[in-house]
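::Amino acid chain::
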Amino acid sequence: MEFVVLPDHPVADEVSARLPSRYRENTLHHHSGRPWLIGRWPAGAVVHAEAGGSKIVLLGSAHTTETVLTRQLETAGSLRELDAVAERTPGCFHLVASMNGMVRAQGSLSTARQLFHTSLSGATVVANRISVLSELRRLTLAEEHLAMSLLSYAPPWPLNERSVWREVDCAPFAHYLSLSPAGSVESVRWWSPPEPELPVDVAAHQFREGLLAAIAARADRSSVIGADLSGGMDSTSLCFLAARQDRPLVTIRRQPMDPTNPEATVASRAEAALSGAKHVLLDRASASMFYDSPDRDDLDVDGPPPFIATRSHIEDVARIMASHGVTRHIQGHGSDELAATGTTYVNAIAQHDLIGSLRSVRAIRAMRRWSLATTWRVIRAFPPYAEWLHRSADELLSGPSFESQVGWEPAPELPTWATREAAELVRETIRGSAAIDPRPLSPIPTQHEILRSVLLNGSSVRFASALGERFDVTFEAPFIDDRTVETALSVRLADRYVLGRTKPLLVTALRGIVPDYVFDRTAKGHFTMDTYVGRKHNLGKLREMCEESRLAAMGLIDRDSFRRSLSEIMPDAANINRLERTLACEAWLRSLPPEIGPPRP
């Protein structure tokens, strides 16, 4: 799905004339007759309503009908009053409206549905993909923001919503874009995080109903539902919810290389319980290895992707799902982050009620083997966000430490192969952001951390969908839908952690729908062995990328240092994510057209 949103301005006709025909499969018009929404999208991906001179479109997975949407549009006297549509409609979608010459355009809180905008002939043009905007004007790389993509975790807020293209801006978090007939744009906040005040039993009911509606939103748009069935608590729970829909269900799972991975046993039991579904197993003979295709040069121009190791696996899933008639594939991303009980959670409960939190603090301290000094660093008040951000700029090359993980976010860290020039670009960019005193996503650090992680998951889902669109498959993550996130954030802090229980909100919400053996397990699996084996198997491709490195040609990484880290027989575990980020940047730079890409090595 690719589209542009245009103001009721003469530039709309210019854009319509300049867009290549492949982007003009569908055109909707303002009441004035000018083009309003141009793009290509599947027929089942849109709900469209009109009332008088007002129009609204939801693009994506929205659990609503044209009748309901028309009624909501009729009662809205302004763009602001369309907040109710965004707040009450389950699913994940773009909302685009035209009303009295004004335009509202917004994506999802997670940015799984994101919007970008640029200026053209003095007016603002909005699109869901930068690749569309690149057809309308020349774009130039912002090297400082490209260097930020080398950070081991991700750029800190609010730098994570900066585009790597100087001419393109991203829609801010929790804001919609308002376009005037004069061509100007204004960002309007429409959502703020709730106060954490609901008991878990109350929130659990809302959470269950929200997840059921989120699954229904996907079922509305696909005659067959696809879903991951890894055996993990999150994806397995969604499979049991999906099985309650009046749609055929196809599940898929990857057999882990680690024979001790406990999730394979849970997945096998779940497959037997979901006897009405079709189950696909990617065994070691049929599954793509990690890093199978890092050197391909066919990524889009939006920006460096959040991952590259599992690209072939994602494409395998999309291809297989498409062969079974699936157009919406559900994943369990985001549930771990919604249940975050790390250092920011301990800090939040201690700051809220130190005496009342002592039992939980002691339990977490014992589990993580913190010293008294470490525990004190965790529970004391964090500095203001701008101060923390400025301080983190001085520690980019300090290496990982527990101290660096205590704060609003994991401290940004550059890999050892980053050059001094890259470090200086990143340092000055972070300091510049800190100087404008940015507000955190929430004044409560653990809420900020959750929302920050939701944004990271949203970018992963968006990239997976970009890969899946080649097979007409969209990847969906109900745990990061707007309504699901809001409910999770509303749970009382004291109810989020219960000694001996994992994810109390999810378990309370779905116990009875999901079998007990899914929730009562005590071990969690991972794919670390798959990562190491895939890296070793494809080391030749990775070394070739190093020798042909665009990042090295730009002076952002040291080729020799990068080569040494790649070639280590057993790379430092701390470097795995750093290698992934650097390789993702390399793969993306290789995909750029010569006229807008970096110099060739």
Remarks:
- The chain has three domains: 2-140+163-189, 200-338+454-528, 538-591.
- Residues 200-338+454-528 form a domain with the Rossmann fold fold (CATH 3.40.50.620).
